Amino acid sequence: MKSFKPFILIWAGQVVSVLGSSLSWFAIGVWIYQKTGSASQFAWVALCTALPQMLVSPFAGVLIDRYNRRWVMALADGGAAFGTLLLAVFFLSGRIQVWNIYLITAMSAACNAIQVPAYSALVASIVPHEQLGRANGMIQFGQGLADILAPAIAGLLVLTIKVPGILMIDLTTFFVAALMLVLVRMPRQVFLPQAAPISPAPKRDWRADLRAGWNALRAQSGLLNLLRYQTLFSFLWSLFGVLVVPMILGFSGPEGLGLVLSLAGAGLLTGSLVLSAWGGPRRKLTGILAFELVSALAFCLMGLRPLLWLVAVAALLAHSTLAFVSSLSEAIWQGRVEKPFQGRVFALKQALVKTATLLAYSIAGGLADRVLEPLGYAGAFAGTLGAWFGVGGGRGIAALFFLIGLVKAVSVLWVYFSPATHQLEQDLSPIYQSAKKIGAVH
């Protein structure tokens, strides 16, 4: 029988590990900037994070569906811990180079590409269906907590125990997460896909297993619609993540930027906390679309005028809805995809979403430097859109944020009025699920 207690223990270990990793990468980011003085180096770190996840994810799904998901997660955490150990050795020896960080970042990202869908599939196996929204809210809460605490804690630790000391703390948190995974007791079948349609051991065919996962995804048009929307969602949010800093600094200073980023983190944390306590609406898909409409409004407000208080409130609102949308979306996938295919389907979803993220990272810099920033000063812009968005630094980016809000609103309407979406909402309803269990629905 499924219980929420095993999830609590695993979740606690993962939160500790996420906080440790956040400490490490904040400290390493500071070191890179102090060493090179180049902000563009961060783009390479982002590339080394997104590209391996995109490439490894499809194969990771097959691995997750073939083997015990508890041990797949533990091994993925172990691989990331080994990368952290290598970094600590390089720092302690005084031989650390920026390219070492790129390489180890790519290795850790590949491990993360395995760990994330394995974690999601494991949660779907051990958490009761009606508690999935709450569980995913707690996962978001742990990430938001790390995002808020890590900069402050790492900023103090860098001055005292330096980067190698922080890396050793991170290494310890990996062992905490692995220990929780190993110690949680439950039936073995919970961790293994039930009667997984995987090619026999002597003739393991990765291509056939990948095709089976893709076919399982294609068979559900409602999920495909949701995936298209999530891919667009990831692309737009990734553009925002890269461009929000120059947009704010175009009319405010570092203090204003810090205020907006702090409120954004608080919004994500608050939304996650509310969802953890509430569990989310019963009609999850309708809830996602409702929160996305609020997010669309927030993006429009963010770009509308160069007013710090307006941007700060909009950032708070947008990030609070992000917690709901991400967690409820994950709950839909966990509840709708059959367990034998979850590893492959979740990993394919991750690969497509990371592709959108990578595309956004690739074009954001050139788009800002060559199109949006010159547009903010252009006479034609000043005489038309400039009357609404303002003129000067960052205002071309602000106009893009307003456009992103409109695109999000139109996308919500497209998803809502799609017949496949209504079918998916019906399939997710408790009445349908109960009928399916007793055989009234085939």
Question: Any overview of this molecule?
Answer:
There is one protein chain. The protein has 442 residues and is mostly helical. The protein has two domains: 1-182, Growth Hormone, Chain: A, CATH 1.20.1250.20; 215-431, Up-down Bundle (Growth Hormone, Chain: A). It has 18 helices and no strands. It has helices at residues 5-36, 41-66, 69-93, 98-126, 132-160, 162-183, 188-191, 206-218, 221-249, 254-278, 284-304, 308-336, 342-377, 379-383, 386-389, 395-416, 419-428, 430-437. It is globular. The model is unreliable at 430-442 (pLDDT under 50).
Q: Which class of the largest domain in CATH terms?
A: Mainly Alpha
The total domain count is 2
| Helix/strand order | HHHHHHHHHHHHHHHHHH
Query: Percent range for helical residues?
Result: over 70%
Outline type: globular
Report the β-strand fraction as a percent range: under 5%
Number of helices: 18
Mean pLDDT: 84
Radius of gyration from CA coordinates: 22 Å
CATH homology group of the largest domain: MFS general substrate transporter like domains
- The helix-and-strand class reads mainly alpha
Count all strands and give the number: 0
Separation of the first and last Cα atoms: 24 Å
Largest sheet: none
Remind me, CATH topology of the largest domain? Growth Hormone, Chain: A
